[in-house]
Design a protein that fits this description.
Layout: H1 4-7, H2 10-21, H3 31-35, H4 42-51, H5 57-70, H6 74-78, H7 82-89, H8 95-111, H9 118-121, H10 129-140, H11 149-158, H12 165-179, H13 185-198, H14 217-221, E1 237-248, E2 251-256, E3 267-268, E4 291-299, E5 303-313, E6 322-325, H15 334-344
Helix pairs in contact: 2-13, 4-5, 4-10, 7-8, 10-13, 11-12, 11-13
Length: 347
């Protein structure tokens, strides 16, 4: 273990490094801005944290810009229509998070603003311990810990933790909580995130430019990249399904998925279920000259999905659904957008 006296110097070392190496992010107030008295916008901090739960900053940043342009504050988002937000969310991961985003925005408006402490923030829909800590620290300068994957990796290396991973994560959380400074806790949280993202990276950590290298047990051992020591990942499960692209003239059939479950409430192509095992069986949505056009593959958090895509021209009466001009189709969930493009780009 790193001696406590040495570890106590971590906040000062880290914050000094952050002043010259902070990432320029659209939701962030720079160290110079904070020093000049500019305060972070809780709405932008919350929105960015929710968006980045399942994606990267390069992928999530354009979504963030579109959201704050369309819904510049929490009141605007709370007053939006569910389907508009769901459509704008397409490509950012599970839609349950988009539904919670709306629920949270509406609760925040009802409360008259964002709560300022972790214990109050965590009561809101879609906000877990990490997100609550991040918002409390960054937006409200609360002395709260924000421990994400980047921070886990930094501290696993600092302390050279070799035990069972879930138990070691508790050790890390306790260590971080003890180190959060009373002054500049938000910048401390951001600095840890930046250190993990830009220096103490999963592979090839840049120890020569790390402000904490003198404290790091993993570096002293000579193999920091072996940490954190996690259990081996299991084999990704692959499910199968069929997506139907039913065309009638210039229109295509879309359907609204059930509110609960994966991609709940979203407009999508008609499809079979995606069972955990076996080949799904279901009748197509209408009588048509169905033709296979290929397959698309999409990876969700816990499984991969292969969809066989079939296109057909309608024979007879239109079935119920949302008939939409082909040229106007947008905002489909990613897996269905892939299937739609595969079917229509043959034209």
């Amino acid at each position: 273990m790193v001696p406590k006296a040495k570890l106590a110097t971590l906040p000062e070392r880290l914050l000094a490094w952050y002043e010259g190496h902070a990432r320029d992010l659209p939701w962030r107030v720079s160290p110079a801005g904070r020093a000049a008295g500019i305060r972070p916008d809780p709405y932008r901090i919350w929105l960015s944290e929710i968006m980045l739960q399942q994606t990267t900053i390069p992928h999530g940043t354009p979504y963030f810009h579109r959201f704050v342009t369309r819904w510049p504050d929490v009141e605007a988002l709370a007053n939006s229509r569910d389907e508009e937000v769901m459509s704008a969310w397409a490509g950012l991961g599970y839609y349950a998070r988009a539904r919670n985003l709306l629920k949270c925005a509406r609760e925040v408006v009802a409360l008259g603003g964002f709560p300022q402490t972790g214990p109050e923030l965590v009561k809101l829909p879609g906000i877990g311990l990490y997100t609550a800590g991040a918002i409390a620290a960054i937006a409200f300068d609360q002395q709260a810990a924000a421990v994400d994957g980047n921070v886990d990796r930094v501290f696993a290396r600092l302390l050279a933790l070799k035990g069972e991973w879930q138990a070691e994560k508790k050790v890390i959380a306790k260590a971080v909580r003890a180190l959060v400074p009373a002054e500049r806790p938000g910048e401390f949280a951001e600095a840890l995130m930046d250190l993990g993202a830009t220096v103490c990276t999963p592979t090839r950590p840049d120890c020569g430019n790390c402000p904490l290298s003198e404290l790091c047990r993993a570096r002293a051992e000579g193999a920091p990249e072996r940490y954190p020591v996690k259990p081996a990942k299991g084999v990704t499960r692959v499910r199968q399904g069929v997506a139907y692209v039913l065309v009638d003239g210039e229109d295509v059939l879309l359907v609204r998925r059930p509110d609960k479950g994966l991609l709940g409430g979203m407009l999508a192509l008609p499809s079979t279920d995606w069972p955990k095992t076996g080949i799904p069986e279901a009748a197509p949505p209408a009588d048509a000259d169905w033709q296979p056009v290929g397959e698309v593959r999409h990876v969700f958090t816990h499984f991969a999905l292969t969809l066989s895509v079939r296109r057909g021209a309608l024979n007879g009466k239109r079935p119920d659904g949302v008939w939409t001009p082909i040229r106007d189709v947008e905002g489909l969930p990613t897996v269905f957008a892939k299937a739609f493009r595969l079917a229509v780009e043959r034209d």
